Amino acid sequence: MQKRSNGDSRIELLKELPRRPLEPAAEQAILQALREEEKRGTVKRKRRTWRYALLAIPAVAALIVWGLLSGVVNRAADGLFGSRPAVMHTVEFSPLFDLLDKDGSVVYPDRLRGIQGKIAYSEYPGGFVAKSGREVSKIFWYVWGDPQRLNGALLVATGVDLSTGKQYLINRTKLSGPIYGADAHMVTRFNKFPSKGTWRIDVEIDGEPYGSIVIHVKDEYIHTESSSFLLSKDDTKAGSTETTLTVNGHDLADTLDVIVQPVGRTGEARRLHFVKTEEYVQSDGLVPVTEYSGSLIFDAPGEWRIEVLGEKTVVEVRS
Amino acid sequence: MDDKARIEQWFTTYGSDIHHFLVYYTGRSQAEDLVQEVFVKALKGSRKFQERANPKTWLISIARRVAIDEYRKRRRSRLLPLRLLGERKASEATPEDLAIHRQDVADMYRTVMKLKRTYRDVLLLRIMQQLSAAETAEVLGWTTAQVDVTLHRAIRKARSIHGALEGGVEHAEKIERR
């Protein structure tokens, strides 16, 4: 039997075990614990400290939410007291621009979002969709600056939902060397955006603020428990829209009927025919998925019920 | 730089590496508490570091001792849940290829975790953590020759358990020569 080359050695597979970095919350908790140990001047084993700190995070978040809610209630009640919304001013979204090569030629038109000549990421056509892993799975960062400083530097991107002020870790990665006209780059995966709306992505490089990118995240995809249309609720409009439907599972029927019906108006249900196009395993969670193609047709704006394989959901169709 | 600032800097630089090592060395799904213990021990024993050249190997040697103590105390299963091994790796490959590849990676890890401790030590340090022979020797308190010989035997043993380990011995010879 012919043996594989050295470079193909299967023992090398150990290098590809999924990375298990520390979660940011745990990292902060451990740093805090180290500081406390130092303060006390005694070093004791503190196995559960990080867990308490993690427990504290939802408690603090709950307090903030409670504070915001009580502010709103107060304002509604007497008009004198109230919490201010997180953003009072008009936001300006960061622009899309071309990725240029060193000689100024266009590599990809209208592909990057961010600050030209400073920092940007490659945007999936249509932008990000709340709670979806599809558009965040292969993102390139492009950074301009001192290549010596940037190469190997740690980039941390924190997302701030500007409607609530809540912060989430969007990405944490080490930058690599120059590519095209940029001084550093990295291909990575963003965490899913948990909510729709206006988000500001604050980027720090090696702990120092480097730039902020303001974006719009669309509402989640129309979905039932086990299926999802690749159509954001924001893009659900009256008329016919070609779309893809993904259904969890393999070995499903070659065709599938989607039933749409205006809410509160019986007898107007319409069957829409979707045809199987492929089966695959979704990389996000290793879920087997069957993909169908077809069109969603809504005759008029308003609330519509959508039924797929007996599971129902309701969407607001826009004009 | 005082000891505290230095340990904090090392934690920022190597904390995730140490966590990665501890997760796979112990087979636990999370190892934050052990990471904390490692750095607390490093803080306590930072004076011992003075004569050492490489903070990463020093920290991994502490992590290995912490993991062994932990294992003795708890005797828990050394194998990670499948879903943790199934996390994706960015690639141009098709989803099917990726799924098969992930299975291969998981199988190899399981094979290694069936080996005796010295073999596991040398494979996880040399291959997974990608330490050099000299660095591995520093962590384990061995000579580089011992590391090379043990690596060679570990791969041979892994191959005997995991029938499809073609090329393993040639690989051992290649990295011994580095």
Task: Explain the overall architecture.
The complex is a heterodimer of chains A (319) and B (178). Chain A is of the alpha+beta class. Chain A has helices at 24-40, 49-78, 147-150; strands at residues 96-100, 106-115, 119-122, 139-143, 154-161, 167-174, 184-188, 197-205, 208-217, 221-223, 227-232, 239-248, 255-262, 270-282, 287-298, 302-308, 311-317. Chain B has 2 domains: 3-74, Orthogonal Bundle (Rna Polymerase Sigma Factor, Chain: A), CATH 1.10.1740; 93-177, Winged helix-like DNA-binding domain superfamily/Winged helix DNA-binding domain (Arc Repressor Mutant, subunit A, Orthogonal Bundle), CATH 1.10.10.10. Helices cover 72% and strands 0% of the residues of chain B. Chain B contains 9 helices and no strands. Chain B has helices spanning 3-26, 32-44, 55-74, 82-85, 95-113, 117-128, 133-140, 144-161, 168-177. Mean pLDDT of chain B is 77; it is low at 76-84, 86-92 and 164-178. At the A-B interface, α1, α2 and β14 of A face α1, α2, α4, α5 and α6 of B.
